[in-house]
Design brief:
The chain is built from 18 helices and four strands. A hairpin with a 2-residue loop joins β3 and β4. It folds into three domains: 101 residues, no CATH class; 151 residues, Cytochrome Bc1 Complex, Chain D, domain 2 (Orthogonal Bundle), CATH 1.10.760; 126 residues, Cytochrome Bc1 Complex, Chain D, domain 2 (Orthogonal Bundle), CATH 1.10.760. The protein is elongated. Helix content is 36%, strand content 2%. Bound molecules: heme C (5 copies). The site of one heme C (HEC) has 18 residues, from α6.
């Protein structure tokens, strides 16, 4: 009986062993490697071993096994025409040697994984999605302090940074201690923990990763923050307006550029030998007061609420004046005789904005106070710029564009 048990048991073990062996040689990476090796002549095969490959970039705290499947990434002579057997495009691995940098510093993903989906970060709870194509540009700023040095290699990043100013994101958001405080500080948005994004993920289509989350948000902030309409609420409960963040009507390319920029902001703690420091440059201010004022308008993100060039059109739920933030095209008409009053308004802001319907909630956007951010001499330039906006106008103000000043303002 004992003997029989023993035979049965060792039989079972053998089967298990064979299954495990079959399982192992059937691994994705194993199949890729044998597929690749079959294409090589024996002389080319020499010096190449099979098995899991790993690059230990210990200075960067990373262990990357990507080359287990991407076998020819740094061997152009042996590379094939399809992934994962292609050689790396461009000079990237010459400038950033594989053994020192690995792959994930630039591409994200999951360095230790040996299954395609897991390695590419396409599994739940892995918070670093694979950066490919234009999105790789999001990782360069973690080491290259001065974008100007690498500008020709990172067109999307440069474009995103520029757009962030032009559209006026700084009006409501702070990035690296610059900007407004109406909404979140976006400095770390590129590493916001997924548990805090989970609710948004449930409202959007897959893939549920931070790249697509940011793109969904920028395409139309109201999709992830639609508010609660009064008619679906129990009587007496106050409605919630959709996101106070305006829908900027951005083109897809602009959305990608802004996403690359937002992802690039997160600070890394790479050792000094990997960091190419920024050279501080002195900026030369334009000679004209109006031009200096234009820069101040942009630097502080006034356009975020008032539209590019002060043209208006940004939604402000339940605000008077057509539920929009006022355009600034008529500032000269209203304030040329009241410059001090205008300056006072910019210094101190105005909050809360009067409601169109007193029974509905207060508008989400208000005029912030700028006195801590804009100096008195800058204020003169800003006023000169605001007055210049009228030059492009052929007509006098339409009747519905009344000034926000009331006798109580003074
Ligand atoms: C188990 C094998 C495997 C591993 C490990 C692996 N990859 Fe891949 N990779 C593939 C395959 C297969 C493709 C092509 C098909 C696809 O995208 O799924 C690919 C494609 C890619 C692409 C190009 C995507 C495209 O569509 O052009 C990039 C970039 C990439 N991998 C980066 C990485 C990085 C970075 C790692 C390590 C974190 C990694 N891979 C690890 C198998 C792998
Ligand atoms: C210094 C940053 C950097 C490092 C390190 C790096 N790459 Fe890339 N990789 C890039 C850039 C930039 C591109 C080009 C993207 C483009 O222009 O489409 C690219 C392209 C690729 C592509 C082609 C598909 C695509 O996204 O266009 C693959 C595959 C790839 N890299 C894999 C790897 C692997 C595997 C490693 C590690 C051995 C690695 N890379 C290391 C920056 C890097
Ligand atoms: C982990 C840090 C790190 C990352 C990430 C990184 N780089 Fe680099 N890069 C370096 C270092 C260090 C050098 C070498 C600088 C030197 O030799 O002066 C370098 C060199 C370069 C060079 C060559 C400069 C020259 O004139 O020789 C270029 C171009 C470059 N990087 C662009 C990029 C781009 C674009 C990206 C993003 C796709 C990127 N780097 C990502 C650290 C990094
Ligand atoms: C008029 C004010 C305003 C402007 C201008 C503005 N936002 Fe927002 N933004 C908000 C508000 C309010 C929220 C929070 C409510 C929400 O998430 O819908 C928000 C949320 C976000 C979030 C989500 C942050 C998180 O952690 O959940 C991102 C990302 C974002 N904004 C990016 C941008 C970018 C990029 C721009 C410029 C193109 C911009 N915002 C311009 C008001 C603004
Ligand atoms: C977060 C949104 C927001 C930002 C950013 C913002 N404003 Fe305003 N601003 C408003 C709102 C809302 C009003 C209307 C106030 C009211 O109705 O009480 C307003 C009113 C004004 C007015 C009065 C317009 C009139 O018709 O009387 C001026 C001038 C003005 N803002 C200038 C600026 C300047 C300059 C900046 C940048 C330094 C700026 N604003 C940034 C929201 C903003």
């Amino acid at each position: 009986m004992k003997r029989l048990l023993f035979v049965a048991f060792s039989g079972l073990l053998t089967v298990l062993f064979l299954v495990a062996l079959g399982w192992d040689t059937n691994r994705q990476w194993n199949r890729y490697q044998s597929q690749f090796f079959k294409t090589l002549r024996p002389s080319e095969r020499r010096g190449l071993s099979d098995g899991i490959k790993q690059i230990i970039a210990s200075d960067l705290n990373r262990v990357d096994r990507c080359t287990t499947c991407h076998v020819a990434i740094d061997k152009p002579a042996l590379a094939l025409a399809q992934e994962p057997f292609k050689a790396h495009p461009g000079q990237w691995l010459v400038w950033h040697p594989v053994e020192k940098f690995g792959c994930t510093v630039c591409h994200g993903g999951q360095g230790l994984a040996t299954e395609t989906k897991a390695a590419h970060g396409q599994v739940p709870h892995w918070e670093e999605p694979l950066l490919q194509g234009q999105f790789v540009q999001a990782s360069c700023a973690s080491c290259h302090g001065n974008l100007k040095d690498i500008a020709s290699h990172v067109p999307m990043l440069v474009k995103g940074k520029r757009l962030f100013e032009e559209v006026g994101c700084y009006g409501c958001h702070t990035v690296k201690e610059r900007g407004g405080t109406l909404s979140q500080d976006l400095t770390e948005v590129g590493s916001k923990p997924y548990e805090l994004i989970e609710a948004d993920f449930e409202m959007m289509e897959a893939p549920h990763d931070r790249i697509h989350w940011l793109m969904t948000k920028l395409k139309n902030p109201r999709v992830l923050n639609p508010g609660v309409r009064p008619e679906v609420l129990p009587l007496g409960e106050e409605e919630v307006f959709p996101s106070a963040m305006p829908n900027f009507g951005l083109a897809d390319e602009q959305i990608r550029a802004l996403t690359v920029y937002l992802l690039s902001l997160t600070d890394s703690d790479y050792p000094a030998s990997y960091v190419v420091p920024a050279v501080s440059e002195s900026t030369i201010l334009p000679a004209s007061s109006v031009e200096r004022g234009r820069l101040i308008f942009e630097k502080n993100g006034c356009a975020g609420c008032h539209g590019i060039g002060g043209a208006g059109g940004r939604r402000n739920w339940n605000a008077g004046l057509g539920e929009e933030v006022p355009a600034l095209l008529y500032v000269k008409a209203y304030y040329s005789e009241a410059v001090e009053r205008l300056k006072g308004l910019i210094r101190n802001g105005r909050q809360p904005v009067p409601r169109a319907d007193p029974k509905r909630p207060a508008p989400g956007l208000y005029m912030p106070a700028w006195k801590d951010k804009i100096s008195e001499s800058e204020l003169d330039d800003l006023v000169a710029y605001l007055f210049s906006l009228a030059d492009e106008l052929p007509v006098s103000p339409p009747s519905n564009a009344a000034s926000v000043q009331t006798p109580a303002d003074g």
